[in-house]
């Protein structure tokens, strides 16, 4: 997890990884940024692991309360709320992390064209935010979700950098002979 | 909307689970002592939830220490009542 690259200012980054690794990478990044200053976390998948992050922050700085106060969290539980949250977020110089952006876009009760339209709006706001500060979007790459590939492709086309982490294949069982 | 934080019982079980390998490596008598410590912490889950500490395991450790100290105090009182009073 120490190999995580730094966020470049003015760029929109996309983190693609399967669940356990993605959470660990994002938590590590949040802890690292919180130790250095304020940051904004927009949680689109209800996956902000406060206790785990507190533990990681404790490893990097003795000023736990100060570092935790540097983290500003806002959550969205539907794709409409994601759009509203991004629209209401002013462009500042704070690093911005958007966790599990596409999770709420898996809602099959909303027609796909409507979800695509909402994602387009979200991406325009992400672009606006990324002009002022480094911005990272994390997306699940679990393979068995109901996320339409079209939405992921749209996202991949619009970002500046893609960090893709692949899980190592399961080790083959050892044989005696 | 769901929970934004796991319940204190879930956190406790996760912490206990994270020591499963440690427990497995202990001898049987030590495993039972470790189980007693976690049982002691389990008695104070309501207080731990109310504390809402950023690092819940620290609260669990304090709860274990609390129960240990209560036991020390109980044994001290028992010993003092059993022994004859001395002047020095």
Give the class-level CATH name of chain A: Alpha Beta
| Chain oligomer state | heterodimer
Number of H/I helices of chain B: 5
Tell me roughly what share of residues is in helical segments of chain B.
over 70%
Structural class of chain B: mainly alpha
Order of SSEs of chain B: HHHHH
Give unreliable regions of chain B as ranges.
Answer: none
Distance between the termini of chain B: 66 Å
Measure the end-to-end span of chain A: 36 Å
Mean pLDDT of chain A: 88
- Share in helix of chain A: 40-55%
Number of distinct beta strands of chain A: 6
CATH architecture title of chain A: 3-Layer(aba) Sandwich
Structural class of chain A: alpha/beta
How would you explain this protein's 3D organization?
- The complex is a heterodimer of chains A (177) and B (88).
- With 177 residues, chain A is α/β, with parallel strands linked by helices.
- Helix content of chain A is 43%, strand content 18%.
- Chain A is built from 6 helices and 6 strands.
- Chain A has a 6-stranded parallel sheet with strand order 3-2-4-5-1-6, sandwiched between helices.
- The mean pLDDT of chain A is 88.
What's the SSE blueprint?
The complex is a heterodimer of chains A (177) and B (88).
Chain A: E1 12-17, H1 19-36, E2 39-43, H2 50-60, H3 64-69, E3 71-75, H4 79-88, E4 96-99, H5 112-132, E5 135-140, H6 149-158, E6 161-165
Helix pairs in contact in A: 1-2, 4-5, 5-6
Chain B: H1 8-18, H2 20-25, H3 28-42, H4 45-51, H5 56-82
């Amino acid at each position: 997890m120490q190999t995580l690259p730094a966020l470049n200012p003015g760029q929109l980054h996309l983190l693609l990884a399967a669940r356990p690794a993605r959470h660990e990478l994002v938590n590590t990044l949040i802890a690292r940024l919180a130790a250095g200053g304020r940051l904004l976390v927009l949680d689109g998948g209800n996956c902000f692991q406060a206790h785990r992050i507190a533990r990681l922050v404790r490893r990097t700085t003795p000023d736990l309360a100060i570092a935790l106060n540097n983290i500003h969290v806002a959550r969205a539980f539907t794709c409409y709320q994601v759009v509203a949250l991004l629209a209401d977020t002013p462009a500042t110089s704070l690093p911005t992390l958007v966790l599990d952006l596409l999770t709420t876009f898996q809602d099959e009760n909303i027609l796909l064209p409507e979800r695509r339209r909402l994602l387009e709006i979200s991406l325009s706001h992400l672009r606006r935010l990324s002009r002022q500060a480094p911005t990272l979007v994390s997306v699940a790459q679990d393979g068995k979700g109901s996320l339409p590939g079209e939405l992921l492709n749209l996202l991949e086309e619009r970002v500046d950098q893609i960090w893709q982490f692949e899980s190592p294949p399961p080790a083959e069982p050892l044989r005696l002979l | 909307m769901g929970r934004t934080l796991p319940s204190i019982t879930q956190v406790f079980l996760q912490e206990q689970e994270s020591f499963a390998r440690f427990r497995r490596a202990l001898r049987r008598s030590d495993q039972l002592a470790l189980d007693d410590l976690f049982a002691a912490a389990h008695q104070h889950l309501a207080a731990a939830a109310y504390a809402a500490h950023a690092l819940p395991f620290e609260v669990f450790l304090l709860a274990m220490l609390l129960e240990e100290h209560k036991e020390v105090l109980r044994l001290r009182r028992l010993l003092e009542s059993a022994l004859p009073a001395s002047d020095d």
